[in-house]
Amino acid sequence: MNEKTLFEKIYDGEIPAAIVYKDDVCCCFRDIDPQAPVHLLLIPRKPLPSIEQATPDDAALLAHLMLKVGEIAREQGLAKSGFRVVINNGPDAGQAVPHLHLHILGGRSLQWPPG
Ligand code: 5GP
Question: Taking the C-alpha atoms of 4, 38, 21 and 27 in order, what is their torsion angle to the nearest 10 degrees?
Fold first, then answer.
């Protein structure tokens, strides 16, 4: 059996994190190195390594995550001011953790294009 990813360990409560939302499919917690006043990571329970490796079997999972983004952003007070959702995929994007995660960033004006 493969070793659990860092984010599986967070989902399972084996590594502490400031969790703001959790259900049977996903959980959302505060990034340990926040790049904005609000910086959350939304992860599926399933250890999909990256968005590029998702398959049609993951359609319901991906829809669930996208719907939770809005719900969580509203709950965090970001809906009116705005926020950004980022998925890093692979080395050029700087993906550090091989477990799909959506960054939800808000609480300040965000530059475009990103670096
Ligand atoms: P990536 O660069 O892979 O898109 O993003 C990984 C993110 O995970 C980074 O923003 C990093 O700060 C965050 N991170 C790494 N280790 C931990 C941890 O142990 N706990 C939390 N809450 N966030 C982490």
Answer: -20
Rounded distance, CA 51 to CA 58, Å? 10
Ligand 1 midpoint to CA 21 (Å):
17
Nearest Cα neighbor of 84 from 101, 108, 61, 49 is: 108
**Ligand 1 atom 17, closest CA:** 32
- pTM for the whole structure: 0.97
Ligand 1 cavity residues, CB under 6 Å? 6, 15, 17, 29-33, 41, 88, 94-97
The tokens for 44 are: 């599926």
**pLDDT averaged over consecutive 10-residue blocks of the chain (115 residues)?**
92 98 98 98 98 98 98 97 98 98 98 91
